[in-house]
Amino acid sequence: MKRILLMLLIAIAHGIALYNIIFINKQGRIVYVPYNDIYYYLIVASIFLLITIIYFILRKALLVDKSVLTLYFGYLGGIVVFLLFTSLFFTKSDFIRRGKNFFLIALGFILITAIISQRRKKLSFPKRLEAPVFIFLIALTAYIVFSISGIFPSVGLLGDEPHYLLVTYSIVHDGDINVRNNYLNQHYHQFIQGKIGVQAVLGKKGAPEFYSIHMPLISIYMVPFYWIGNFFGGAFLLFCVRAGMSLVGALLSYYFYIFLRKEFLQETALKVCVLFSFLPPVFFYARQLYPETAIALLSVIAYMEYTKGRKVLPSLIAGAMPFFGAKYIAISCGFLLVFLKDIIIKREYRKMYQYVGWFLLTGSYLLYLKIMYGYVIPTAQYQGKTGEETVAGLIINYIFGLNWKHRIGSFFSYFLDQRDGLLPYVPVYFFAFLGMVWAYRRARHRLFDLILIALPYIGVYSFLTHRGGFCPPARPLVAIVWIFGFFLAFFYEHNKSIPFKRAAFITVCISIAILAYLIYDPLAAYQATTHHVLERSSTLLKNASNFYANLSYGFPSYLKSQPGYWYANYIWLAILFAVILYYRRISQHLHQDSLNAGLKIGFLLGAYVLIILQFSCFPQLTLRGMNYAEDQQNGIRVYMFQKKATFSSDMNFNYTSTKPLTFLIESKNELDTLVISFNKPQHMQVRVHYFETPATPYFTGNNRIIKLAFTYKKGFYYYYLLTLEPLCPEPTCHFGFHLSMRGVGP
């Protein structure tokens, strides 16, 4: 029976492939299908063969029941769904990309099903792997291996990183932290290409002194790694920088695991530590030259020592935090609130001397500001030498000058914004909020301590409407993400609800898939969110969208530069709060598994088909955020794929580049003819491609007349994809052209 079913699936799949090759290409204007060779059939056959081989390998390796075998055949049969839509694409590269997506989706679901089928067996790890030192070594190895991708120019030092390293350069080569000469002489070219802006302000003595707006402690830490890298030079310098920060990230994993083992069962501690260490944001920031990871490490150590009854070391660590940046004063003060709470509740007023380290180091920080900038105010490192009246004005502006709507939006953006929020990239952290329910019931003192540490930091950050800038997502939360990891452990330790346990597993799978994509395309994690940014859509969601479904509309966005309502913000907040309240009500009751095998199979196959439809069955293209020229009278838009193309409202275009220019014409009416009127030097030629087919135009002077033999239709709109390939010997080509179109006659 199984062999007959497998042969039937193969016959159906190959039959659809042959049908697409032979017949659909003859349908003219209905849809564009560039099946001019046998490669299409070979790709389809290869995908089917690979999935079949993987299925039989897993079937041999695992003892699975009939329901799991049914799922495997369902996943194998998904290629039929994929083939039914393969005629809907613009280019062969789009089809190949969708074929890869389909293969990865099928492989992912097969692996997930294999894991689910084995979950009845209790997972066990070798005792050595459960030791904290092995957690440290595994994390360090993973971070350093991932850091290798960070030494290439495309994903080298980005955002604030070169400015931190420039301070290190000044310490090593000049023996000071005055970066005036380093910016003037562009010493940053030693480790970054191009030109960067100046992030420095005047010191107390005026023009001779320029100090970085970033506090120097993390730059001082990087000195030995910079020295070693500079000795060998080249890409090894950036590798040493990444390795130095990877050491901090690995230590964070090490101490966080020790902390979890002290509070939870070993299985829970290991599970949560793995999720914490190898998912964003820690996995990305473990190699980034930012102080957030170091602050997270120090915070874990300080609070762990505090829970052991020690007071001196936590107070010293908390007092030193402002030397990493003014924003960490809030975390430092949060620890002070925890210390004061402990003193008041236990009435240990005579032991206040144990916290004197906090006051000494905080006083040292304020003295540092006075010596370097001339006055004592945390914003001194950002404003430089400023008169007292200006300082007072700054304080008033910070308190009264910012929009409260932006402040509230900034608070929620740290968790929900699709460009840089925590939950869209690591949805498993939502269950940390459910873990707070258990923390309130089982360890209320821990809950209040951690809220006192985290809330001032998030509150000040959002009060000033600060965002992460051009960096990986969730930067504002990296310093305190260990707190969410701690509450996540509460959920895994105490949760009794099978549906919520299953939902947590699904979010882990989604988080791993997002991580895999961001490793494949690291630049997709870097997105600006400051005042000048006008685009709400994240790169991740744009790449996950297709021509028919734009996922970015369904996710929250809190950009300050975009006024008006974004309904997904309110929908997500309502859903999340409703789920938390519902879980609070039912969490103490034991919920058995109420789904039978048939419903489980139906759910998995339904999710499988929906994901295939989203990522494999339609062109992976979204028009949101693209520049376009519009002819409103004729209902025509021309979307430009290259930003170097300029245009006016009368369909006149200018382009300066040697790269091909691709544009998509959208029309309410079907078009028959396209006329391209070039205004260019006579010796330069431009090759025209219609979709991926070289066009055979008619010539009348500088005009190219192209017959639009086929189209891509979506709803009431017709689409035409054209590419202009400039052929010129010069390093840079410049040409202008005008587009005019004629519709299909009666």
TrEMBL record:
Q: Does the keyword Transmembrane apply?
A: yes
Question: Keywords assigned by UniProt?
Answer: Membrane, Transmembrane, Transmembrane helix
Entry's transmembrane regions: 39-58, 70-90, 102-119, 131-152, 231-257, 269-286, 316-340, 352-373, 422-440, 447-464, 476-492, 504-520, 564-583, 595-615
* Protein name as it appears in the record: Uncharacterized protein
Which species is listed as the source? Candidatus Fischerbacteria bacterium RBG_13_37_8
